[in-house]
Design a protein that fits this description.
The protein is mainly alpha-helical. The chain is built from 14 helices and three strands. The chain has a three-stranded antiparallel sheet with strand order 1-2-3.
């Protein structure tokens, strides 16, 4: 084999003119499947969260490109499908111009090509979805709610609907712990630790963490489990309707639709459950600093040049101390008693009835 520099330069020039890289030459061509044949493999290899987020988009991709091979779709065709889905989207209360539709469609296409490349069906550089610009995210309109707004929401939650007890429990759970909606829906009957007043949250990116909760909230969750569930720790869903069936995201949709009917500013500003998370984390940040707020939110510690930050992550005791001050209710893990001047806007939780 010749290693003459002139030969090597000529080979590199030829590869470049062909639009290839040396890595592409390592790829062994194979018969490519169609989207209709391959996307089901992508779905089968995906996690529950990805299926829930991208399932509808993978279905539309099969409908549009089903008979095409993976190497036959162009960036322009992907962008065209993205525009059509945005134009034909269902307009919801929190619509923001179809940004999430475009973003999710593109992410679904990229997932297909990334897996095809990992499966050695395509060379590393063949990813037309990667050539489509990702939609620029708009600044979020969510922000912390004021005490009067939280009080108005609490009043509306506790005095309306056919199951105010459940809605009140949901409202306090999110306002107190700042958990995401997915974290609440994933709660199991064995995720309650009553002795130290902790609940175990399973949230996005498969994170699992213990979060402090007030004795009042823990007692209400245990009461809920006793009357609507199995009455003991099990791996089954915790939050349930009166008939014992687990709740899902539709419970939240109906709750905020009702709140919007009673409080016009809720609809006008597209207030949702996530605003409660903003409210709590803002209060924690202002009173206990960004490090404790980050731990309270369950966010991973950011990478930085501040080596000291690695050693100063907040403990559960730090989070419990902040919670005690926020709810103005003592917590068994708090290092100091709750001071005066908390945010006493939480609705009173009545004992659950069978």
């Amino acid at each position: 084999m010749s290693t003459d520099p002139t030969t090597v330069r000529a080979a590199r020039l030829l590869i470049s003119q062909l639009g290839l890289t040396p890595e592409d030459l390592m790829w062994v061509p194979t018969d490519l499947p169609t989207f209709r044949d391959y996307v089901p493999h992508v779905i089968a290899a995906s996690g529950t969260g990805a299926k829930r987020t991208y399932g509808t988009y993978w279905t539309r991709i099969i409908e549009t490109f089903g008979d095409k091979r993976l190497d036959e779709v162009t960036p322009s065709e992907i962008e065209g499908l993205m525009r059509r889905l945005v134009e034909n989207r269902q307009i919801r209360r929190n619509d923001r111009g179809g940004h999430s539709v475009a973003e999710h469609l593109l992410a679904a296409m990229r997932a297909i090509y990334n897996r095809a490349i990992n499966d050695n069906l395509l060379p590393p550089q063949h990813n037309p979805a990667g050539k489509v610009p990702k939609p620029r995210r708009r600044p979020t309109t969510r922000q912390s709610l004021g005490a009067a707004e939280v009080t108005a929401l609490a009043d509306a939650v506790t005095t309306s609907g056919h199951d105010a007890v459940l809605d009140t429990l949901l409202f306090r759970l999110h306002l107190e712990t700042a958990c995401r909606r997915g974290g609440a829906l994933a709660l199991r009957e064995d995720d309650i630790e009553p002795t130290t007043c902790l609940i175990q949250l399973r949230e996005k990116n498969n994170t699992i963490r213990w979060q402090p909760a007030s004795p009042t909230l823990i007692a209400s969750l245990l009461d809920h489990r006793q009357h609507r569930g199995n009455g003991k720790p099990t791996p089954e869903p915790l939050l349930r309707h009166r008939d014992g069936n687990p709740i899902n995201h539709r419970r939240y949709d109906r709750l905020w639709e009702r709140l919007g009917d009673r409080l016009p500013w809720v609809n006008a500003r597209n207030v949702s459950t996530h605003w409660l998370r903003h409210t709590t984390l803002t209060w924690i940040d202002r009173h206990y600093g960004p490090s404790v707020a980050r731990g309270y939110a369950g966010h991973a510690h950011p990478r930085s040049d501040d080596v000291t930050a690695i050693y100063t992550k907040p403990t559960i005791a730090d989070l419990a101390t902040a919670l005690a001050a926020y709810t103005h209710e003592p917590h068994p893990l708090a290092t100091t008693p709750p001071p005066d001047g908390g945010l006493p806007v939480f609705p009173i939780l009545n004992p659950l009835q069978p």
